[in-house]
Write a structure and sequence with these properties.
4-stranded antiparallel sheet, single chain, disordered N terminus, 5-stranded mixed sheet, alpha/beta
Length: 482
Amino acid sequence: MRRLCFHLGVLQLLAAATAVYKQWIPNTNFETASNWDKGRVPCASNVVRFEENQVVSVFVRSPHTLTDVYLPLNGELVLAAGAGFAAFDGSWDPGCDSGATVRFSDAEHHAWFDPTLWQPVSPSGELESSRHIFSVDEERVPCHYDDVIFQPETSFRVNVDSSQQVIHLRSVSLMGQELSSPEAWTTYLRGPSAALQFHGNGTLQVTGSGCVDKSGCACGNTLDGHRICAALLRASGGQCPAPACRSPLQPLGHCCPICGATINLDFMPDFDLQKYQNRLVQTLLSQPKYTGMQMAVSKVQKEQTFLGVIPRSSTPVIQIVLIHEGTGVQTSSTVEQLAADIMEDIAQHGEALGISSGKIEVATGNALSEQVGNHALSRITTGTVLGLLFSLLFLGGILFLHRKGKLRSLPRLPALCLPQLWDRVEDPAPPAPGSEKGFDNPMFDVEPPRADPGEETPQEMAHRDHPVFYLNPLYDANETET
C-alpha cells in the first residue's frame, strides 16, 4: 500500500511538472478602476449605474458609500466578507465629484481566444518568466490539456465563441476552487454564476486528463486560429508588422511571419519533448553568446503535399522556432549559429534523443538562407514540371480522341505539322506508265539487252513453254489458299 501511494505521488509530481497553467487577466471587480467609464472607482457622492440589459457578475471586496445605485435586471454582486454598500449622508467629500454618474463598462468584448488576455503562471498562480522560452500565438490561449486559472476573489465575463464544438481543458480553477473532473464542472455549470461568467456559442468541457504522450500533444486551437489572429492584430487593423528580412518564415500556429529560423524534427516513439527542450536551454540557450535568443518548441500537424503543391495528409512533427530580440547583422549571425548548433547536436546525438531527421529553414535580417532559397526554387521547378505534364496529358488526350474517331474536327495549325509516330507506313502509289522507277538488284543476274528487240532467244522460248517458279521466304501460300 505504501509503495502504491509512493508511485501515485511521483505521478502527480510529474504531471504537475509538465502541466501548463494559463491565467485569465481581466476581471469585473467593483474595485478595478478600468471597469468604470471615468477610469476610477465610484466615490460617496457619485451615482453608480449599470445598464438595464447588462449581464454581469461583479465581485465587491470592500465596503462602499454611494449616493445612488442602478442595478441591471440580470446580474449579481458577489460580496466578500465585510463588503457592502451604504447610503451617502451628504457630507462634503473633497476628493469626489459631487453628483457625477459613473457607469460600469461593458465586458462583452473579452474573448476566450484573445492571446493578450492570458498569461502563463505556475501552479500556485505566480507569473512564470522565462527569457528563453516563448509560445506561438495559438498556444498562448489555453490548449486542450492545459489548466485554466481565474484569480481568486475576482469576477469575470468571457465570450467563448468558437469554431470547435467543445473546448477541452484539463481543469478550471475559479474563486480558489479547482474543478478537475467532468462531474464537478457539470455541477458548477448548473449554478447561477456560470451563465453570467461564460457566454457565446462555445462549450467548455473539463476532462481531468493531461497529455500522456511524452513526445507532446498538439495544442488543438487550429480551428480557431483566425479568431486568435484577429484578436491579436485588432489594434493594427488586422495587418502584421513589416518584417526586417526579405523572405520571412511562417511558423505553424503563428499569426505573422518572422525573421529567424524554424527546425522541423521527425521523431521516434522514445522522443521526450520536455527533456529535449530542457536540453536545448541548458546546453545552448544558456550560453552567453546566445543572449537575447528565444525558442518555442511544440508538436504541430504539418501538412504533407504531393510534389510540394497538392495537399495529401498531415503528420505530427516537432517544430522549433528561433527568434532574437534585436536586429542587425550580429543578430542574424546569432540565429544562424544557434540553428546550426542544434542541427549538429541532432547529427551527433539524434538517435539517442529519439530524433530521426531534421529540416532547417533560416530567414535573417540580411537575406534568406540557402535552405529557404532552395526550397522556393524547388517549388517553382515543381510547378513548372506539373504545368508541362498537364499540357502533355491534354494534348495526348485530344490526339487519342482524334485517332479513335471521337473527335471529328481537329483544328490544324497552318504553320505547324505534328507527326504521328504511330501511323503505319502507307504503300507507295503505282508508277505511271512508261516511267522509270526500277533499280538494280545486286542479288539478281540481269542479262545485257538484246541487239534485236523483236527476236526471241532460245531461253525465252523455253521459259514461255515451261514456266520457272521461285520460292519467296516472305510469302506463305497457305494464306492465299485461306
